[in-house]
Automatic annotation (TrEMBL):
It comes from the Eukaryota. It comes from Exophiala spinifera. This is RNA polymerase II subunit B1 CTD phosphatase RPAP2 homolog. Its EC number is 3.1.3.16. Residues 211-248 are annotated as: Disordered.
Protein backbone atom coordinates (compact mmCIF):
# COMPACT_ATOMS: atom_id res chain seq x y z
CA UNK A 1 0.00 0.00 0.00
CA UNK A 2 2.85 2.33 0.84
CA UNK A 3 4.50 1.66 -2.55
CA UNK A 4 1.36 2.79 -4.41
CA UNK A 5 1.10 6.08 -2.50
CA UNK A 6 4.21 7.73 -4.11
CA UNK A 7 2.94 6.78 -7.57
CA UNK A 8 -0.42 8.41 -6.88
CA UNK A 9 1.30 11.55 -5.56
CA UNK A 10 3.54 11.77 -8.63
CA UNK A 11 0.57 11.45 -10.96
CA UNK A 12 -1.35 14.15 -9.09
CA UNK A 13 1.69 16.44 -9.16
CA UNK A 14 2.04 15.99 -12.92
CA UNK A 15 -1.63 16.73 -13.46
CA UNK A 16 -1.43 19.79 -11.23
CA UNK A 17 1.70 21.15 -12.96
CA UNK A 18 0.17 20.61 -16.41
CA UNK A 19 -3.02 22.43 -15.40
CA UNK A 20 -1.01 25.32 -13.96
CA UNK A 21 1.09 25.57 -17.11
CA UNK A 22 -1.99 25.69 -19.35
CA UNK A 23 -3.62 28.27 -17.07
CA UNK A 24 -0.48 30.43 -17.24
CA UNK A 25 -0.38 30.17 -21.04
CA UNK A 26 -4.05 31.19 -21.30
CA UNK A 27 -3.49 34.15 -18.97
CA UNK A 28 -0.43 35.29 -20.96
CA UNK A 29 -2.44 34.99 -24.16
CA UNK A 30 -5.22 37.16 -22.74
CA UNK A 31 -2.71 39.80 -21.66
CA UNK A 32 -1.14 39.84 -25.12
CA UNK A 33 -4.55 40.18 -26.80
CA UNK A 34 -5.34 43.09 -24.49
CA UNK A 35 -2.01 44.68 -25.41
CA UNK A 36 -2.82 44.35 -29.12
CA UNK A 37 -6.17 46.07 -28.57
CA UNK A 38 -4.38 48.90 -26.75
CA UNK A 39 -1.89 49.23 -29.61
CA UNK A 40 -4.74 49.56 -32.12
CA UNK A 41 -6.01 52.50 -30.07
CA UNK A 42 -2.52 54.03 -29.90
CA UNK A 43 -1.96 53.61 -33.64
CA UNK A 44 -5.38 55.14 -34.24
CA UNK A 45 -4.06 58.43 -32.77
CA UNK A 46 -1.09 58.57 -35.15
CA UNK A 47 0.46 60.74 -36.41
CA UNK A 48 1.10 63.02 -33.46
CA UNK A 49 1.24 66.15 -35.65
CA UNK A 50 -1.57 67.22 -38.00
CA UNK A 51 0.92 68.32 -40.68
CA UNK A 52 3.06 65.17 -40.56
CA UNK A 53 4.53 63.81 -43.79
CA UNK A 54 3.89 60.05 -44.16
CA UNK A 55 7.00 59.81 -46.34
CA UNK A 56 9.14 61.25 -43.53
CA UNK A 57 7.43 60.40 -40.23
CA UNK A 58 8.92 61.41 -36.89
CA UNK A 59 11.13 58.73 -35.29
CA UNK A 60 8.73 58.35 -32.36
CA UNK A 61 5.70 57.86 -34.62
CA UNK A 62 7.53 55.38 -36.84
CA UNK A 63 8.81 53.46 -33.80
CA UNK A 64 5.33 53.16 -32.28
CA UNK A 65 3.82 52.07 -35.59
CA UNK A 66 6.50 49.39 -36.03
CA UNK A 67 5.89 48.21 -32.49
CA UNK A 68 2.22 47.76 -33.30
CA UNK A 69 2.94 45.93 -36.52
CA UNK A 70 5.28 43.55 -34.71
CA UNK A 71 2.30 42.16 -32.79
CA UNK A 72 -0.36 42.61 -35.46
CA UNK A 73 -1.85 40.02 -37.73
CA UNK A 74 -3.50 41.15 -40.95
CA UNK A 75 -6.88 41.13 -39.21
CA UNK A 76 -5.54 43.54 -36.58
CA UNK A 77 -4.31 45.89 -39.29
CA UNK A 78 -7.73 45.71 -40.95
CA UNK A 79 -9.34 46.68 -37.65
CA UNK A 80 -7.05 49.72 -37.42
CA UNK A 81 -7.85 50.76 -41.00
CA UNK A 82 -11.58 50.39 -40.36
CA UNK A 83 -11.47 52.52 -37.21
CA UNK A 84 -9.54 55.28 -38.98
CA UNK A 85 -11.94 55.25 -41.94
CA UNK A 86 -14.90 55.59 -39.59
CA UNK A 87 -13.18 58.73 -38.31
CA UNK A 88 -12.77 59.91 -41.95
CA UNK A 89 -9.03 59.43 -41.91
CA UNK A 90 -6.58 57.71 -44.21
CA UNK A 91 -6.08 54.04 -43.34
CA UNK A 92 -2.29 54.42 -43.27
CA UNK A 93 -1.50 55.21 -39.65
CA UNK A 94 1.31 57.68 -40.37
CA UNK A 95 -0.82 59.81 -42.70
CA UNK A 96 -2.85 62.73 -41.25
CA UNK A 97 -4.99 63.28 -44.36
CA UNK A 98 -8.64 62.24 -44.72
CA UNK A 99 -9.51 59.22 -46.81
CA UNK A 100 -10.86 60.01 -50.24
CA UNK A 101 -14.59 59.93 -51.01
CA UNK A 102 -15.44 59.10 -54.60
CA UNK A 103 -18.58 60.52 -56.20
CA UNK A 104 -18.97 57.50 -58.47
CA UNK A 105 -22.06 55.47 -57.55
CA UNK A 106 -20.84 52.10 -58.85
CA UNK A 107 -18.83 49.47 -57.02
CA UNK A 108 -15.94 49.63 -59.49
CA UNK A 109 -13.98 52.72 -60.51
CA UNK A 110 -10.91 53.43 -62.59
CA UNK A 111 -7.77 53.81 -60.53
CA UNK A 112 -5.74 56.96 -60.85
CA UNK A 113 -2.74 55.40 -62.49
CA UNK A 114 -1.65 55.58 -66.09
CA UNK A 115 -0.13 53.15 -68.54
CA UNK A 116 -0.32 49.42 -67.87
CA UNK A 117 -1.45 50.03 -64.27
CA UNK A 118 -4.68 51.70 -65.42
CA UNK A 119 -7.51 49.33 -64.45
CA UNK A 120 -10.81 48.94 -62.65
CA UNK A 121 -10.58 48.59 -58.88
CA UNK A 122 -13.01 48.23 -56.00
CA UNK A 123 -14.41 51.60 -54.94
CA UNK A 124 -14.57 50.69 -51.23
CA UNK A 125 -10.92 49.66 -51.34
CA UNK A 126 -9.83 52.97 -52.86
CA UNK A 127 -11.80 54.94 -50.29
CA UNK A 128 -9.72 53.46 -47.47
CA UNK A 129 -6.81 55.75 -48.34
CA UNK A 130 -6.09 59.31 -49.26
CA UNK A 131 -4.12 58.20 -52.31
CA UNK A 132 -2.78 55.13 -54.07
CA UNK A 133 0.62 55.80 -52.52
CA UNK A 134 -0.72 55.31 -49.00
CA UNK A 135 -2.42 52.14 -50.21
CA UNK A 136 0.97 50.86 -51.37
CA UNK A 137 2.54 51.88 -48.07
CA UNK A 138 -0.03 49.77 -46.22
CA UNK A 139 0.31 46.85 -48.62
CA UNK A 140 4.07 46.91 -48.06
CA UNK A 141 3.82 46.55 -44.27
CA UNK A 142 0.99 44.01 -44.61
CA UNK A 143 3.33 41.55 -46.33
CA UNK A 144 5.58 41.58 -43.26
CA UNK A 145 2.90 40.75 -40.70
CA UNK A 146 2.97 37.42 -38.91
CA UNK A 147 0.55 34.79 -40.12
CA UNK A 148 0.08 33.21 -36.70
CA UNK A 149 -1.12 34.69 -33.42
CA UNK A 150 1.40 36.83 -31.55
CA UNK A 151 1.54 34.45 -28.59
CA UNK A 152 3.06 31.78 -30.85
CA UNK A 153 5.63 34.03 -32.52
CA UNK A 154 9.01 35.36 -31.47
CA UNK A 155 7.91 38.99 -31.39
CA UNK A 156 11.29 40.15 -30.07
CA UNK A 157 12.94 39.33 -33.41
CA UNK A 158 10.42 41.23 -35.57
CA UNK A 159 11.94 44.03 -37.64
CA UNK A 160 9.26 45.83 -39.65
CA UNK A 161 10.36 48.09 -42.50
CA UNK A 162 8.38 50.99 -43.95
CA UNK A 163 7.83 51.57 -47.65
CA UNK A 164 9.52 54.98 -47.60
CA UNK A 165 12.68 53.59 -46.04
CA UNK A 166 13.61 52.22 -49.47
CA UNK A 167 14.82 54.47 -52.25
CA UNK A 168 12.12 53.55 -54.75
CA UNK A 169 8.58 54.58 -55.63
CA UNK A 170 7.49 51.15 -56.85
CA UNK A 171 5.94 48.59 -54.56
CA UNK A 172 7.36 45.58 -56.41
CA UNK A 173 10.90 46.95 -56.22
CA UNK A 174 10.52 47.62 -52.50
CA UNK A 175 9.28 44.10 -51.88
CA UNK A 176 12.22 42.67 -53.80
CA UNK A 177 14.61 44.78 -51.77
CA UNK A 178 12.96 43.67 -48.57
CA UNK A 179 13.21 39.91 -49.35
CA UNK A 180 10.72 38.95 -46.70
CA UNK A 181 11.76 35.71 -44.98
CA UNK A 182 9.14 33.00 -44.85
CA UNK A 183 10.85 30.78 -42.29
CA UNK A 184 8.73 32.25 -39.48
CA UNK A 185 5.62 30.60 -40.96
CA UNK A 186 7.20 27.16 -40.59
CA UNK A 187 8.11 27.91 -36.97
CA UNK A 188 4.51 28.91 -36.23
CA UNK A 189 3.20 25.71 -37.82
CA UNK A 190 5.59 23.61 -35.73
CA UNK A 191 4.56 25.36 -32.51
CA UNK A 192 0.88 24.92 -33.33
CA UNK A 193 1.46 21.21 -34.00
CA UNK A 194 3.47 20.77 -30.78
CA UNK A 195 0.72 22.48 -28.80
CA UNK A 196 -1.94 20.25 -30.36
CA UNK A 197 0.13 17.17 -29.58
CA UNK A 198 0.58 18.25 -25.98
CA UNK A 199 -3.15 18.71 -25.56
CA UNK A 200 -3.89 15.41 -27.23
CA UNK A 201 -5.81 17.09 -30.06
CA UNK A 202 -3.66 15.71 -32.85
CA UNK A 203 -1.92 12.43 -33.50
CA UNK A 204 1.05 12.61 -35.84
CA UNK A 205 3.07 9.66 -37.05
CA UNK A 206 6.71 10.67 -36.61
CA UNK A 207 7.95 7.66 -38.57
CA UNK A 208 8.78 8.99 -42.03
CA UNK A 209 9.63 5.54 -43.44
CA UNK A 210 7.29 3.96 -45.90
CA UNK A 211 4.68 1.50 -44.69
CA UNK A 212 5.11 -2.06 -46.02
CA UNK A 213 1.92 -3.60 -47.35
CA UNK A 214 1.65 -7.39 -47.22
CA UNK A 215 -0.87 -8.96 -49.56
CA UNK A 216 -2.00 -12.43 -48.64
CA UNK A 217 -2.79 -14.74 -51.54
CA UNK A 218 -4.46 -18.14 -51.65
CA UNK A 219 -5.08 -20.74 -54.33
CA UNK A 220 -8.36 -21.82 -52.79
CA UNK A 221 -11.48 -20.84 -54.73
CA UNK A 222 -14.13 -19.49 -52.40
CA UNK A 223 -17.50 -21.17 -52.57
CA UNK A 224 -20.59 -19.04 -53.13
CA UNK A 225 -22.91 -18.73 -50.15
CA UNK A 226 -25.80 -21.15 -50.16
CA UNK A 227 -29.34 -19.94 -49.78
CA UNK A 228 -31.58 -21.33 -47.14
CA UNK A 229 -35.11 -22.33 -47.84
CA UNK A 230 -36.33 -19.08 -46.31
CA UNK A 231 -34.05 -16.98 -48.52
CA UNK A 232 -35.00 -18.63 -51.81
CA UNK A 233 -37.19 -16.49 -54.02
CA UNK A 234 -36.20 -13.26 -52.24
CA UNK A 235 -35.10 -10.09 -54.02
CA UNK A 236 -32.17 -8.51 -52.17
CA UNK A 237 -33.43 -10.00 -48.97
CA UNK A 238 -37.06 -9.00 -49.53
CA UNK A 239 -39.72 -11.66 -49.87
CA UNK A 240 -42.43 -10.43 -52.28
CA UNK A 241 -45.96 -11.25 -51.38
CA UNK A 242 -48.00 -13.49 -53.64
CA UNK A 243 -50.83 -11.42 -55.17
CA UNK A 244 -53.66 -13.06 -56.97
CA UNK A 245 -55.73 -11.11 -59.48
CA UNK A 246 -59.40 -11.97 -59.90
CA UNK A 247 -60.78 -12.31 -63.38
CA UNK A 248 -63.35 -9.68 -64.24
Amino acid sequence: MSSESPKVDDRENRIRSTALRHATEIEDRKKLQTRIADLIVEAFELPTKPDADPARPSPSDASLFKQCLGLFQQSDLDDLIYERNVDNRCGYALCPKPNQRLSHTGNLVWNRKGGKDFKLVNKAEMEKWCSSLCAERTAFVRTQLGTGPAWLRDITAVDIKLFDEFDTDHLAESLNALSVARTAEDEVAEKMQALALERGELKVNRNEEGVTLIEKSSDEIPEPPSLTSQQQGTIEGYQPRKVRFQKS
